[in-house]
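Thread: quick sanity check before group meeting

JM: Hey all, I'm pulling together slides for Thursday and realized we never actually wrote out the predicted structure for the chain we discussed last week. Dropping the sequence here so it's in one place. If anyone has concerns about the input, flag it before I start.
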Amino acid sequence: DLGFPAERVLLLRVDFREAGYEPARRHSQLDELTGQIQRLPGVRATSYSQLGLFSGGDSSATVEVEGHVPKGDSDRESGFDVVGPRYFSTLGIPLRLGRDIVEEDRGDSPKVCVVNEAFVKRFFANRNPIGMRVTPLGYDAADRISYQVVGVAGDAHTGSLRGDVGPRYFVAAKQLADAVRSPTFLIRTVTDTAPVMA
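JM (edit): ok, ran it. Output follows.
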């Protein structure tokens, strides 16, 4: 059980640097590509992610979580991913609380994230995470960005089939200027994937 239905999902990775896409236009190009894919006959939903699914890549950060008192260094780590609008609904990962990342989560709007259930267990205990803040550490204090939790998603295996799903938070790609350099498009089809693949 991956935590989402694996049938009728296509993955398409694009390396923006190799493809010659300009960094300054990356967000508009992501929008254009997502729209083009979404308009293909047989496509139900499209989103994207920096890590993709089972790509072998991983990202982690030391985080400060509002109201959480760490018991040690190992109690401050979380995985993270940078994702596009409708990431959870496209994959079919259920939202337990709050909402998905949406189109309106852009650079000029409040910084938001969605966390998984494992993140809630580690950092929030019995507290409601909605509205709380997650702050990745490791940058200059002046450059730190705090993300407000707007949703809690079910745990899903996206990196490995083995072991338990670890804590992870997901930030909106459009709120980070240069975060998505080689996105994996996640394409959910209505029926058989072969016509869409062609």
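AS: nice. The helical segments are 16-19, 26-38, 87-91, 117-123, 194-197. The CA atoms of residues 13 and 80 lie 18 Å apart.
JM: adding both to the slides.
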